[in-house]
Structures are given as C-alpha cells and as structure tokens.
Amino acid sequence: MKKTISILLSAAMFVCLFAGCGNKNNASADKGVVNVYNWGEYIDTDLLNQFQKDTGIKVNYKTFESNEQMYSVLKQGGVSYDVVIPSDYMISRMIEEDMLEPLDFSKIPNASLIEDNLKGMAFDKENKYSVPYMWGTVGIIYDPTVVGEVDSWGAMFDAKNSGKILMFDNSRDAMGIALKYLGYSLNTTDEKQLNEAYELLKKQKPLLQGYVMDQIFDKMESGEAAIGAYYAGDYLTMHESNPKLKFCIPKEGSNVFVDSMCILKGAANKENAETFINYMTGTEQSMKNAEFIGYTSPNKDVAAKMDMDDLSKSVRYPASDVLTKCEAFINLPQSTLDYYDAMWVKLKA
Fold first, then answer.
1. Bridge partners of 299?
2. Each residue of 69-123: pLDDT tens digit?
C-alpha cells in the first residue's frame, strides 16, 4: 500500500537506519534493534529517526507490496522480523497458523487511544494479537478529462478505456473488484460466482495498461494512465502531484480495510517491538503519520486535531451511507485460497 516516500528519501533512511546513525548520547543509550516489515511507502520516515533518538532502539525497516508477498516471505523463513503490518484477513490467517505473538498491553498503553469501532474486529476478536495502524477504503482514481466522470466499477472493464486502465497486481483485490461489480460479496466461496469473476478479469486483461501496485503513483501522477483501482489514502498523495485526478468509491460498494501492527511468533526483540507499537500509536505520532501518508488514523483524537480540507476529510472519513456498502476481507477456507492462487497464475500467464 501506499504511500509517498521518494526513492532518495527511502535510500537515505535505509543507509541511516542500518548504519545506526544518530547520536546515541541523545536521550537514550543503545537499547538494541527492532526489525519492522511494512507496506511500501506507508510511513513518515522522520518518525523512525525520532523513535531511535527517543528510545535508543535502532529500526531495521523493510517493505512489501502485498499481503500475499509478505506472507510468502515469512513462510519461506530465513528472514527475521519483529513487527509486521498486515491487513485484516491476513492477520486472521496468521493467527490461525500460530504465526503471531500475543501482545503485552501493559507495555502498549497507547492502545487505549484506538477508536472503539476498531476494537474486537472479526480478525482479532479478543484484541490479543494486533493494534490498528491505519484504515481506509479502496476506490477508483481517475482523470475525468480523459475517461469522463466515474461512479461504477464498470469503468474498469469498459473497452473505451482500453490502454488507460491499471489493475491491482494481487489476486484478492482484483477478484474483490470483479465480485463487487457482479453484485457478489468480496468473501464469497461460491465456485460459480468465483468463476464469473475470473472470466470478467480474463476479458479485462487485454484492456489493461498493466497490473501494478506502487507503480500506480508514477503512472497516474504523470498522466501515463487515466484510471486505476487503489487505496483512498494514496489518492490524496497522487492528487498533490496531479490535481486533475478524482476519486470515487463505486456505487456497487468496495473494500474497507484495517492494517494493524503485530509481533511475529518467536520475535527476537519482542519488548522493543511493543515499544515501537506503543510509540506509533501515540496521538502526535499518529497524526504526523496520517498527515504524511494520507490514510486514516485509528487514534480517536486525531480527527479533531488534524487540519483537513474538504477533499481530504471526505476521502479519509467517508459518509456512513458509503461505508455501509463496503466490506472488510475475511480469511477464506484453504480450498478457496487455493482457487485464488490457481486463478491468478492462469490469469497472469
């Protein structure tokens, strides 16, 4: 998912954090490291540097492009992370597969600042393994001067937009879009409905400019592409560079997601990981992070404190009648996940 960091800034951060830059005599002595695995372009890197200065804990920070990529990397082993930031349905899967550590909330007091409606969610009903990081919606980002006004997923499958369309490069989001357009649930396990969605994606493929994840930023900001499905928070980033762009949550409904901070089973630096989660959940840090990346903070005090224009407010905090048409992804049975994998391999071949 997401987000806004330039290549130069990312490179500078990488060098700084892994070289252990910063004055160790400033605030805290060296207290070890925390290894964080997050979505690409999904954090204000100044917060990582400040965390190191404030706590003495160095942050080793790496990124992934999708839940599925993150899961695959972790399953392959050989790479050690402490904090990971998956989405709702993947958290549920990781809990079921005993991949996460229960959190010690006595060391995460800022968890009390999380909005009540983001607690006890289906993916972690006991609030035992996760602390919400950001939430948001998926919609269509488009240039109305090229494709006209858009209010339906149908625009993503319309031949008149051929060569201008960007589609998610992951199976869950792509299938979800097709399913919602067909009037089905994002979480259906009905084989007939899944086959219909696959056939729709198959027909769409020749119309696409490409399957993308974070590559969508350059393509939409530059005008190389004119319509694509992506995350609401990233639209605000793209709009800064290309004010012609608009955003809509289609009338058929969409996905509403929660990305949360978790600690991997057997994490070598669990206490440092809890310190990191607590830090990122604090009000000032949450607000700074939300302002930078364009996503909606789960911290209940942030909305009142942030200075937002009408566009930012409408994208970050959709109206209740819009949200009622949206669904959160849930973890699916293994047989359905196997179907998704087989479908995606065949579609991308």
1. 114
2. 999 999 998 779 999 999 999 999 999 999 999 999 999 999 999 999 999 998 9
Query: Whats the size of the chain, residue-wise?
Result: 349
Using alpha carbons, select from 75, 71, 98 the residue that is nearest to residue 87.
71
Between the alpha carbon of residue 109 and those of residues 105, 114, 118, the distances in Å are: 6, 10, 16
Measuring CA to CA, which residue among 70, 60, 66 is closest to residue 33?
Answer: 60
In sequence order, the β-bridge partners of residue 118 are none
- Residue 12 predicted with pLDDT over 50: no
Higher-confidence residue of 143 and 8: namely 143
Beta-strand runs (E) in 24-69: 33-39, 58-64
Q: Give Cα separations from 179 to 18, 36, 185, 263, 300 (angstroms).
A: 43, 33, 6, 32, 32
Look at residue 27 and give its three-state secondary structure.
coil
Q: How far apart are CA 36 and CA 273, in angstroms?
A: 8
**What is the rounded distance in angstroms from the CA atom of residue 35 to the CA atom of residue 297?**
22
Nearest-angstrom CA–CA distance, 214 and 227: 14
3-state secondary structure of 81: coil
Integer-rounded Cα Rg, in Å, for the chain is 20
Short-list 1, 280, 230, 259, CA closest to 113: 280
Q: pLDDT tens digit string along 16-42?
A: 443 344 333 445 567 899 999 999 989
Closest by CA to 143, choosing from 75, 278, 241, is 241
Which residue type does 291 have?
E
Beta carbons within 10 angstroms of residue 62's beta carbon: 14
Burial class from Cβ neighbours inside 10 Å (0-12, 13-18, 19+) for residue 2 reads buried
* Pair of tokens at residue 7: 């290549």
Burial class (CB in 10 A: 0-12, 13-18, 19+), 328: middle
Put simply, whether the predicted model's pTM sits higher than 0.70 gets the answer yes
d(CA 290, CA 300): 12
